Amino acid sequence: MIKIQSISKSFGERLVLNEISGVFEKGKPNLIIGASGTGKSVLLKCIVGLVYPDNGQVFYDGRDFYGSDRDSQIEIRREMGMLFQGGALFDSKNVESNVMFPLDILTKMTVSEKKDRVNFCLKRVGLENVNAKMPSEISGGMKKRVGIARAIVNNPNYLFCDEPNSGLDHSGLDPQTSIVIDDLIQEISEELDITTIVVTHDMNSVMGIGERIMFIYKGEKLWEGTKNDITHSGVKELDDFVFANKVMGSLRTSS
Amino acid sequence: MIKEIGKYFMFLGQLLVNRERFKTYYKLVLDECQGIGIGSLFLVALVSTFMGAVTTVQTAFNMVSEFVPDYVISQVVREMIVLELAPTIIAIIYAGKVGSSMASGLGTMRITEQIDALEVMGINSISYLVLPKIVASLLMYPLLVIVAGVCGMVGGYLAGTLTEVITPNDYVYGLRSSFNPFTVTFALIKSFVFAFLVSSISSYKGYNTQGGALEVGISSTQAVTSSVIAVLVADYLLAQLLLSK
Q1: Are residues A68 and A131 in the same domain?
Q2: Which of A97, A130, B26, B149 could make a disulfide contact with A93, Cβ separation 3.0–4.6 Å?
Q3: What is the pLDDT of residue A173?
């Protein structure tokens, strides 16, 4: 479980996050949603410690991340896996080396143990016979899946996904891959019983895997709930966001 | 400017904290050595050979007095190459080739979130990415300077003897006469300092890239400019410290 308390962050004069608090539960994807530029990616970076908040605390199963010394922060970070927007695969390494990287650095496993684990994770995300390929030789959807494999290879307790469907949106080029990735994130969260936080602005993801949702608007948390409540939240900003989607918009019109 | 220098020293301070296992660095350093050393060898040999050749021809052109013996030409070539051309001019070329490559490589890693990926894994990205580059630079650049010195003198020999401005015997005699071994020590001290400056400044610029592809190009250019300025300032300070009487 991850708990955040009064997270605030400004860049210069601009207040990007204002006193955001919340709890992200284990075993199901927790979604942070909002339009582009509302601060949701900054919030995610504050949670994982890539951006230091001006105020606030983040607790990983009761452990205060920002109140800990550097060594304890590293301990917590070694329990994290993260899928970045562009995949963030290392250009100079092939798929196998990319997925194996956390094991090379963080474990003392033998080469054959590492290879078995890598093959298991690649198979889990639906990729086989791509071990020798370089990141430049695989598609965007495959990069995301390799990114997920790398994120889960070291059995993390916390999984973070920053816009897992960007570049593959449901209404765009590759709707099928988007659904596969959403389902994969949900299955992995349940299977490994880990705390997963997904940042997205994709309504199809929200309606697909949104068991717990936090809506951010202009740096403020305006609403929290589930996908079942999202269409009748009574929050105008959330309605504008939800029904901006064509499919959701047509539902609103027909109702 | 002062703020930037402060940030640079804080960046250097991160190099040695929370390091990974020695085995991890060993392979990274070898990879960097190959890129930096072998990759730069041809350019360094080519430039230094021509520098030696041109220095010989120009020194000979300026030797108008008949009272000055010919072997002075190769003495001048030796001093110029060992003291200045090999360590300093090659450092400027090194900054252009290796420094810009380091900055653009790290800058690309930054904008594609590869550095963030390392940080989230609990890896000190500065130590993991930059320390091997600096160590490899400290190992390879002095060797490149030695190669440059040898190639420069060979270039001078070829140019001098083929154009008959100096005989082979005079050239070799000039290289050996009044030789002060401290000049070589001085050149090697300079090479270590320049290697550190170019690799650390270029890495700093690349690591702190923000934005997109355009900013990677800007960081790369800034890396070369800042490295060259640092090399020239350090060159003067070292000369003043170690050579002044």
Answers
A1: no
A2: A97
A3: 47
User: B110 to chain A: nearest residue by CA?
Assistant: A88
| Residues A26 and A72 grouped into a single domain | yes
A11 and A137 assigned to the same domain: no
Of A209 and B205, the one with more pLDDT: B205
Q: How many CB atoms within 10 Å of residue A132?
A: 10
Q: How many domains in chain A?
A: 2
Nearest to A84 among B108, B117, B122 (CB): B117
Same domain, A52 and A172: yes
Put simply, the answer to whether A88 touches B116 (Cβ < 8 Å) is yes
How many Å lie between the alpha carbon of B100 and the closest alpha carbon of chain A?
Answer: 18
Residue A199's pLDDT is 92
Are A181 and A212 in a shared domain? Answer: yes
Please say which residue of A155, A185, A206 terminates a domain: A155
Based on the domain organization, do A246 and A148 belong to the same domain?
no
Give the minimum alpha-carbon distance from A250 to chain B in angstroms, rounded to a whole number: 37
Average pLDDT, chain A: 87
CATH number at residue A74: 3.40.50.300
Q: For the full predicted model, state whether its pTM sits above 0.90.
A: no
CA separation for the pair A6, A18 (Å, rounded):
7
Q: Which of B97, B177, B131 is CA-nearest to residue B13?
A: B131
| CB contact at 8 A, B215 and B108 | no
How close is the nearest chain B Cα to the Cα of A52, in Å?
A: 13
Q: Look up the domain containing A137 and give its range.
A: 88-155
Cβ <8 Å between A89 and B120: no
State what percent of residues in chain A have pLDDT above 90. 46
Q: Strand A2-11 vs strand A14-24: parallel, antiparallel, or unpaired?
A: antiparallel
Spans of chain B below 50 pLDDT? none
| SS3 per-residue string spanning B81-96 | HHHHHHHHHHHHHHHH
